[in-house]
Amino acid sequence: MTEPIPLDLARLRRTCAECSLQMLCLPAGMDAEDISRLEAVVQRRKPLTKGDSLFRAGDPLRAVYVASEGVFKTVMLSESGEEHVLGFHLPGELFGLDAIGSGKHRCEAVALGDARVCELPYAHLASIATQVPSLQHQLLRVIGQSADRDQDHVDVLSRRQASERIAMFLHGLSDRYRRIGRAADDFVLPMSRDEIARYLGLVLETVSRGFSRLHEDGIIEVRGRRVRILDVAALGALTHGCEGGQPPQRRRSGG
Amino acid sequence: MTEPIPLDLARLRRTCAECSLQMLCLPAGMDAEDISRLEAVVQRRKPLTKGDSLFRAGDPLRAVYVASEGVFKTVMLSESGEEHVLGFHLPGELFGLDAIGSGKHRCEAVALGDARVCELPYAHLASIATQVPSLQHQLLRVIGQSADRDQDHVDVLSRRQASERIAMFLHGLSDRYRRIGRAADDFVLPMSRDEIARYLGLVLETVSRGFSRLHEDGIIEVRGRRVRILDVAALGALTHGCEGGQPPQRRRSGG
DNA sequence: CGATTCCTTGACTATGCTCAAGAAGAGTGG
DNA sequence: CCACTCTTCTTGAGCATAGTCAAGGAATCG
């Protein structure tokens, strides 16, 4: 465990300038000089595996993070003991920002599988941002984008119909996969039905039935965690709740 | 309408240093010198009345806002035409940050009654933040706090039971009233049942029934928009879903 | 290959939505 | 100041959607 593994060291040495996620991540839009100043504070942590926590609720704000490989979820445990999933964090997406408001993390970040993160010590980041306006601007932007994702979550949860929430979830995930350069219509879900349910404010059975329904209707093909989107337009239409292509629910008028 | 009203002009001239909301607002924790640099960019807009929009979805990011008097709601219109309420903004709370991620506003901000706002042109704010580290820090903090409120919204919407959502809403609102120095257990709701419902992902009838139920159970006293919280502890307990003081729902075992 | 976890599907139930009508407030003008 | 109107709120009855409980099947891991 403590013995140095050459391959890992090589990866740890990788810089932002070489990173495939550069376009998506904090360095986006920064010039070479600025990036090198940013690189000075970026730390690459040792790889994590399924279930590992990056931080827990109550931990003081030390750093913000971006997954370079693998997917994370952030979860909040309600007083009644239920686990609510606040978000899923794909490679290139900044997370851990929940501690900026109060100085303490409000949630826990957990790796959904093997993962690797870049850690950006917050105090360093903020002080460099003072010196490098383009980084400050970029930092505000990514924070804003993170807030946009939270907003999308609110948007999903505001939908009354479970089918709408599920369609929005898949549609949004597909979009995000495209953005990170991965197939948008054929992927393996990194999270369980239960985790999806806890993200959507539903129970896992409802999510499962929702998936089956989309399969029956020929909109997706699903087998376990493998998902293929066959009809993006129809999926998008379901997102709007009202009738799009197929009727969203067999009403008495149809039957 | 266009004639100058002395009283209003006097108010418009008021500075951050004199503002009663100083402790809550952006200037919190800044010294006199820094505040004066901030004041240079703050603009006080002419008063708004019920229904007036401050910005609309699609508008470019010009400024961020803080209500100095009155309450605002931010709303998003879904493709199917429904209005979703994203948040209510009390005096001292920064809003309009939704445009930071993309450069465009994602939602519309509407005054719920007579209101007055301070407008902070974003470009100015960001450039001063570069020069004044304490403002940068403060700016990041308030953005973080705004994200915390969004997170609280997610938390509310994740609850399955309507009664929990309603209890959390009242409990949270009460908290925020206390923070701005107003009575936390006796207030007039600035928003309608319908707006509450659209915030909670429910319909107005459900909200109305929820309020009536809390009244019956002796936890609150409600008459129209006037609310008095009689038993904060019980309200907090309902927030947790599980049984607290009174049973949350009369089950057959009880009747 | 066995054990465990995860997913699917069914039957039943309950919560909250729909539709509907009436009461209470707020605003307006005589 | 009161009558009128319009909006907002309350309450009721019935129904549909999603939750609960339960069991069996698929997939994954050691």
From TrEMBL, chains A, B:
UniProt keyword terms in alphabetical order = Activator, Allosteric enzyme, c-di-GMP, DNA-binding, Repressor, Transcription, Transcription regulation, Virulence
Iron-sulfur: present as a keyword of the record? Answer: no
Note the SUPFAM superfamilies from the entry.
cAMP-binding domain-like, Winged helix' DNA-binding domain
Q: Which domain of life is it from?
A: Bacteria
Recorded hits in Gene3D superfamilies, A to Z, give: Jelly Rolls, Winged helix-like DNA-binding domain superfamily/Winged helix DNA-binding domain
Q: Where in the cell is it found?
A: Cytoplasm
Q: Please classify the protein's predominant subcellular localization into one broad category.
A: cytoplasm
Q: Which Pfam family, just one, is annotated for this protein?
A: cNMP_binding
Residue stretches making up the HTH crp-type domain: 160-233
Where the record annotates domain Cyclic nucleotide-binding, the positions are: 26-110
Self-association or partners: how does it assemble? Homodimer.
What is the protein's name according to its record? CRP-like protein Clp
UniProt organism field: Thermomonas beijingensis
